[in-house]
Amino acid sequence: MIKTLIVEDDPISEEILKDLVAECGSSVRISDSCGSVKQALKKISKLDPDLVFLDVELPDGSGFDLLKKIGTINFEVIFITSHDKYALEAIRHSALDYLVKPIKLSDLKASLKKVEKRLEKKSQKNEDKREARLQNKLAVPTSDGLSFLPIEEIIRIQSDRNYTDFHLTTKRKVLVTKSLKEYEALLGPYGFIRIHHSHMININHIVKYVKGEGGYVVMMDGSTVDVSRRKKDDFLEQLAKA
After folding, report:
1. Is 116 exposed, middle or buried, given 0-12, 13-18 or 19+ CB atoms closer than 10 A?
2. What predicted TM-score, i.e. pTM, was given to this entire model?
């Protein structure tokens, strides 16, 4: 359902628009209506509409004044007016469409199809962003369920027998009920490397490498982690690629 607000100060025009929307048979549903800029500000804040039918000329200002007061527009706008002289201004305000009274049913249907397509694209983008966020998180089992850790916030991972401590940039430590080995293949593509039998580090959070028999690294949280002699060559190779 497309939540819709009508901002129109003429009751007759409002009723005609409602009847036309009903005739279109679309997913648009009129949730509320009002007849002034002041009322519209309150209605929009409360309703959070997907679409606003907006009259240009209102008793206490214009539809353009309303959009300027709102600032960030999170809904689609279809301007309705008795004059076509405002068309350019409507385009400047990123209106989806501009309908001149008396509104033709065919024009309204075309506008509502635009709305549905625009909202479908917006919904898909939001879903893609949500999936991307999930893909960049690691689900880890803890004593009370699952924690979703942003991969870029993991500084290092330290094993403790069959348990693993995840050390994060937020200075938080998460105890996970799986061994360190479980995460080598999962996190390898994200810049993680095992430099010791008990430690895997995020190469993006290294501050310094100090040479030695195996040497050690200083991480961004101030911790130091030994590099085992057996892992040193692989580690330096990865470091050169970073």
Report:
1. middle
2. 0.59
